[in-house]
Amino acid sequence: MDNSTEKIILGIDPGTRIMGYGLIRVKDNQLSVIRYGVINLTKYPNQALKLKRIAERVNELIENYMPDEVALEAPFYGKNAQTTLKLGRAQGVAMAIALVKGIPIAEYAPLRIKQAVTGSGSASKEQVAAMLKAILNFKPEKDIKLDATDALGVAVCHYFNNNKMNNQQSTQKKTAKKSSGWGDFVKDNPNRVK
Predict the structure, then answer these.
(1) Whether the Cβ atoms of residue 19 and residue 89 lie closer than 8 Å to each other
(2) How far apart are CA 88 and CA 76, in angstroms?
């Protein structure tokens, strides 16, 4: 991610009852909240209608805010295989919409997201929400659902991950240039070698 330009990241916390979303803007290494909320799926009587609604809302969010990147929380693998399957389907629908629109996607495990935001992989949803208030410098709505702040956490984790990778790549390029080998040294310093 080029930190000198503006980027919009859509974070998604997949769910089959409540799906969280959060959009952040990154400009000059400053993060700000654009929008966050939930897609309430409890009123839909079956999985097919829920997946259709997820597709519609994710498509609307992408068309309205034109994110540059989409980050999703990977489903955790619990004891209930049916729950995991349903979460995977919800995530897959959101991923497919982004991919059809040509937007790069990334997945992050829940533990990694919590660690990126709070420094602890065992942080509670409330702790993640509290830390996001400080990181994003915003005051959440009074009745905010934790699924929405979880989605903001996914977007922030994605930014931190890409920023860290860019810094590592920059350091590696500088190091590689300094020690590119004897042949380059001879070529760059013909007066010093006889």
Answers:
(1) no
(2) 9
The C-alpha atoms of residue 12 and residue 42 are separated, in whole angstroms, by 18
By C-alpha distance, which of 159, 140, 162, 137 is closest to 149? 140
Confidence tier at 3 by pLDDT (50, 70, 90):
very low
| pLDDT value of residue 176 | 46
Instruction: State the catalytic residues.
Output: 13, 73, 147
pLDDT (tens digit per residue) in 54-107:
999 999 999 999 999 999 999 876 678 888 888 999 999 999 999 999 999 999
- How much is the pLDDT for 4? 56
For residue 30, count other CB atoms closer than 10 A to its CB: 11
Q: Does the domain at residues 7-192 carry the CATH identifier 3.30.450.20?
A: no
Tokens of 22: 């959060």
List beta partners, residue 32: 25
Q: How far apart are CA 152 and CA 80, in angstroms?
A: 26
Residue 159 structure tokens: 């930014």
* Strand boundaries in the chain, DSSP class E: 7-13, 18-27, 30-40, 69-73, 105-108
Residue type (1 letter), 185: F
Neighbouring CB atoms inside 10 A of 73's CB total: 25
